[in-house]
Automatic annotation (TrEMBL):
Residues 338-443 form the Pyridine nucleotide-disulphide oxidoreductase dimerisation domain. Residues 7-317 form the FAD/NAD(P)-binding domain. The gene is merA_1. FAD binds at residues 52, 140-142, 303, 309-312. Binds 1 FAD per subunit. Keywords: Disulfide bond, FAD, Flavoprotein, NAD, NADP, Nucleotide-binding, Oxidoreductase, Pyruvate, Redox-active center. Its cofactor is FAD. This is Mercuric reductase. It holds the Pfam family Pyr_redox_2. It comes from Limimaricola soesokkakensis. Its EC number is 1.16.1.1. NAD(+) binds at residues 177-184, 200, 262. Belongs to the class-I pyridine nucleotide-disulfide oxidoreductase family.
Amino acid sequence: MSHIDCDTCIIGAGSGGLSVAAGAAQMGARVVLIEKGEMGGDCLNSGCVPSKAMLAAAKQAHAMTKGAEMGITPTVPDIDFAAVKDHVARSIATIAPVDSQERYEGFGVTVIREHACFTSPDELRAGDTTVKARRFVLATGSRPLVPPIDGIEETPFLTNETIFDLREKPDHLLIIGGGPIGLEMAQAHRRLGCEVTVIEGARALGKDDPELAGQLLSMLREEGIRIEEQAKVTRVSGKAGAIRVETETGAFEGTHLLIAVGREVVTDGLGLEVAHVKHGPKGIAVGADLRSETNRRVYAVGDAAGGLMFTHVAGYHAGVIIRSMLFGLPSKAKTAHIPWATYTDPGLAQVGLTEAEARERHGDALKVIRARFDENDRAIAEGRTEGMLKLMAVKGRPVGATILGPEAGDLIGVWAIAIASGTKLSKIAGAVLPYPSRGEINKRAAGNYFSASLFDNEWVKTAVRAVQRWVP
C-alpha cells in the first residue's frame, strides 16, 4: 500500500475535475486526480461530443433532401449508419488527447485510475493507494436516470451511454423523455432514416419558453417525428426488435427503446458518510462557495453540486473553487448568467429569465422585445428564416433571452455575456457588426427596445423639428 500527501485531491476526470486539476497543478499545487472510468467523463465519451457528431451527420443527410427553391435538385441520401458511428468515434478520438492521462501527467498531476472511497474526513483509498489531502473536490458527474417503470428490468433499452455503440439503424426508435437529449436523438435518428416516437409524461421541453419551444416541436413534427405529450408511461415490455411502451393515453410499438428522462448524480460508493459529507439524491449539500456544509475540506463541482447539469457549468465551477482553494479569495457560484441550448436544427437556447419568470419577478417594469429571423438578411439569403429572438429587458438591461433558430447556441453567447456583466442594451444596440450575419439579430433586438420611445414619441419629434430650424 502506497501513500500520497497532496494539496488537492479530485475525484472525477470530467470537465470540472480536469479544469480544477489543470489550473491547480499549473499554479504550483500538488494535485492527485482519481478516475475509475474514461478520462473526459460523460461529455466526451457518451454525451455532448458524440451527440453533436451524430447531429452533424444527420444535418448533412437532411440538407440533401432540400434545396429545390435554390435550384438544387433534392435527392434521397444513401445512409451508412455504421459509417455515421465511425464519424462519431473519430470525433471522440480526436478530442480525447486533450483530456488524456498523459497530458495531465505532463502538467504534474498524479493520475490514479481506480475507484475512490473515503476512509476518514481527510483521507481516501484508491486501489492500493491512500491519499491524504488538504482539500478534496468531488467532480463525480451524473449518469442516465432509469425510472422504476413496470417491466423495465426485463426489457432491453438504451441510454446515452449505450446508444452510440449501436451500429445497425433502428427501424423505429421509441424515446421516453421529451427533454433536450430525447429530442436531439429523435431528430438525429429521424434524419438518418429511422421512424421515431417521443413519449413525454408532461410537456416536451418543459423547462424552456413555451412559445418558442412549441414552435420547435411543431417543426420537429413536420419532419415526421411523432411527439406524444402528457403521456405518462405505465409499463414497458418486449424483446430486441419488438418493444412495447404503454402509457395512460395509449400504447406504442417500435424496435428499440431509448430512456432519456434525465440524470442522477453519482455519489454511491464514495464513503461520504465516513467523510462526514452531507448528500442526497440531488448531490452534495454545498453552499454558494461550493464547499460541503458538513466537511469544509470538501468541494463539489458540476453535476455533483446538485444544480444545473451542463458541462459548461462544471467548467465555471472549477474557476470558482480555484480562486477559493489556491488564493483564499471569497468566491461564489451564481446561476443567472448560465446559458443552455438544445442542439436540434433549428436550435433553442436560453439564458437568464424566461418571459414567464421575468413577468413574475419584474411585473410591469418588464419589456419583451421580439426580433424575427425573417427580417434578417443573412437568414433570408440562406433560406432559413424560421424562428426569432425574444428579449426580456428591465430598465435598459437584459434579464433574459430566448433564441429559436439555426445556431441558436452560438447566438445566445452575446446575452450570456451581457447578463453576466450588466451590460446596457444601448451598448449592444450601438455595436457595429459584420453584414450580413445572423448575429445582427442581437443588435436589432437591442435596438427595438429603444424604437418605440424614439420613433413613436411626439415629444422627440417636436424636439427634432425644433432643432432642425437652427442646425446649419
